[in-house]
Amino acid sequence: MHLQVYMISQIAKAVTFTTAVIVLVGCSLYSQRYLGDLIEHGLSLAVFGELVIFMMPTLMVLILPVTLCGSIIFIYGKMIGDNEVTVARACGVSQYRLLMPALTVALVATAVGYAMSLYFIPYSFSRFKDIQALVQDAELELLLREQTFNSFGADLTIYFRERRDDGTLVNVLIYDNRDPGHSTTVIAEQAIMSQTADLLTVTFVDGNLQQRERDGDDLSIVYFDSYNFEFATAGLFGGPSNRERSLSERHIHELLDPPMETDEQREVAGRMLAEGHQRLTSPLLCLTVTFMAGAAMFTGQHRRGGHKLRLAFVGLLVAALLIAYQVLVLASATIPVLLPFIYGMVALPALVSVVILHVSDRYAPGRRLRGLRRLTPAAP
């Protein structure tokens, strides 16, 4: 009992440490692309921290089977190298008891995977995309260059002589030709820009507004002390003001029951179903790789110097399974008939591994009982 608790703690520590390191490094490296924009636009480092945190669930589901398998190979590999597995088997310890610490950690990892897959991924990815959209929207201010006619399409031009440290624009001109009835030119000594999710507001100070009608030569000029000029930023770049949710932002019930009313919805339905079935099966890979590792490491003869080749074989076998699983998920997005094979890809290796463990275990419960019956003398 003490040995199993010790092994559980060792495997759990290895899984936790390797998963945390890989996830943090991966999220941080990906978020680096936004760090410069965050600093330049005055956004706090807390926003960068949110970016890192909200990326974690997606990467964790992908990484957990890999780190779990690596931790099992490492811990049990040390035991095999020290002949502890051989001694345990000689003392009557079954394969199942040897594998129980790894299975305990795998069950916890599976539960964590389902929590991430079914709840945290859609929530965190939605927040991640919101922050990403905020950074991209903030790039409009970065695109505005001093002493340059900044054109957004053919109908909107912004010019200013300089930008002060506090963000104030000096000697500003905006030409707006988007209204079909008239064109508008605003000239001011100063202007302050403020931006929301899809709206840019320019507050002009001490200037004039000129409007020219298209059906004549009439020109009207209005002088002002303060004037607000607003326009939608989403329209400038051809994107919708309300972004469409990606597949990763949708919950499992939406993915498994996609709408089929329009041709566009039917085209996306295959990818939604593949994403939904991947959410249901990917956490189970933790159990699958555990059984595979146990079947490969605990069967056959164990020699002190020959276990490294066995461990390398386990790693290659698990890597091949994970790659095949991802390829099958991608293929099922365009070929829906492959969706049931996703479950087979997860379940079949685990079942085969269980059979191998049972057949090779002379101390399996059923086989032990049969051996006791043979050794028990018949009653006179």
Description of the molecule:
The structure is a single chain. The chain is an alpha+beta fold. The chain contains 11 helices and 6 strands. It folds into 2 domains: 2-139 and 246-374, no CATH class; 145-233, no CATH class. Strands 1-2-3-4-5-6 form a 6-stranded antiparallel β-sheet.
Overall mean pLDDT score? 79
Gap from first CA to last CA: 40 Å
- Structure annotation, total helices: 11
Strand residue percentage: 15-25%
Task: Name the quaternary structure.
Answer: single chain
Range of helix content: 55-70%
Radius of gyration, CA atoms, in whole angstroms: 32 Å
Q: Give the structural class.
A: alpha+beta
Give the CA-based shape: elongated
Widest sheet: strand ordering: 1-2-3-4-5-6
List the secondary-structure elements in sequence, H or E: HHHHEEEEEEHHHHHHH
- What count of structural domains? 2
Give a count of the beta strands, DSSP E runs of length 2 or more.
Answer: 6
Major sheet description: 6 strands, antiparallel
Provide the low-confidence segments as ranges.
235-242, 368-376
